Amino acid sequence: MGTLVAIEGLDGAGKNTLTRAVTERLTGRGLTVGALAFPRYGRSIHADLAAEALRGGHGDATASVYGMGLLFALDRRDAANEIRGLLGAHDVVLLDRYAASSAAYSAARLGESADGAAAAWVRELEFERFGLPVPDLQVYLDVPVAVAAERARSREAADASRTRDAYERDADLQVRTGAVYSGLAAAGWVSPWRVHGVDDAPELLADAIAGPS
C-alpha cells in the first residue's frame, strides 16, 4: 500500500507546481507516483455544482457554509475507491487538496479557528462517517497571501478557463483561511503535517515523503 500525501494551501499557492516537482523527484528515485486533484471539476457532479454556485449559480447556495462543505465532501467520498486503487498501484499518491481544504475554508468563513466546530464536523463527516483514506502526511504550502493572490490573478489573465471564483476573489477570506491552515498544521489535524515554505526546495518534501536519496 502506498503513502498518501495531501498538499494544501491557498488558491494560487503553487500546489500543482509543487506536486509536479515532487513527482519528478520521486520518480527519479525509482518510485511510482499517482496523483489526484480536488475538487474533481468535470468529473464529479458535486464538484461541478459547487463550482457553479461559486460563480453565482444555484441561488443562495453559497450562503450555506455547511452546504458547500457537503458538496465538496461528497466529491471526495465518491473518489474514495479511486484513491484506494491509486494507493494499491503506486508507492506514493499525491493529492492536490483534500479534506483539510474544507476544514480551513469553512472555519474561515464562519470566523472560527482550527479547533472550532466546522473543522470538527469535516473530520467526523469525511473520515469517520464517509470512511475516506486518512493521509499519512499533510503538507501546508505556506505562501504569503499577497503572493498567492497575484499568482491567481495572473493565472486568470492568461487562461480564460481559470476565472477566479467567489472564494478566490475574497482577500479577507484568504487571510483567514491561511490562519486556519496554520492552526490545523500546528495541531496535527487528523494526521501529521509538514509546513513547506515558499523558498523551500521540492526535494525537501520528497525527502520527507520517501527519505533522503
From TrEMBL:
Cited Pfam families: Thymidylate_kin (PF02223)
Biological role: Phosphorylation of dTMP to form dTDP in both de novo and salvage pathways of dTTP synthesis.
Top-level EC class as recorded in UniProt: transferase
Entry GO CC: cytosol
InterPro entries per record: P-loop_NTPase, Thymidylate_kin-like_dom, Thymidylate_kin_CS, Thymidylate_kinase
Stretches assigned to the Thymidylate kinase-like domain: 7-162
Catalytic activities: dTMP + ATP = dTDP + ADP
Protein name: Thymidylate kinase
Cited SUPFAM superfamilies: P-loop containing nucleoside triphosphate hydrolases
Keyword Glycoprotein: no
Keywords tagged on the record: ATP-binding, Kinase, Nucleotide biosynthesis, Nucleotide-binding, Transferase
GO biological process, one term: dTDP biosynthetic process
Family designation: Belongs to the thymidylate kinase family.
Entry-linked PROSITE patterns: THYMIDYLATE_KINASE
GO molecular function annotations of the record: ATP binding; dTMP kinase activity
EC number: 2.7.4.9
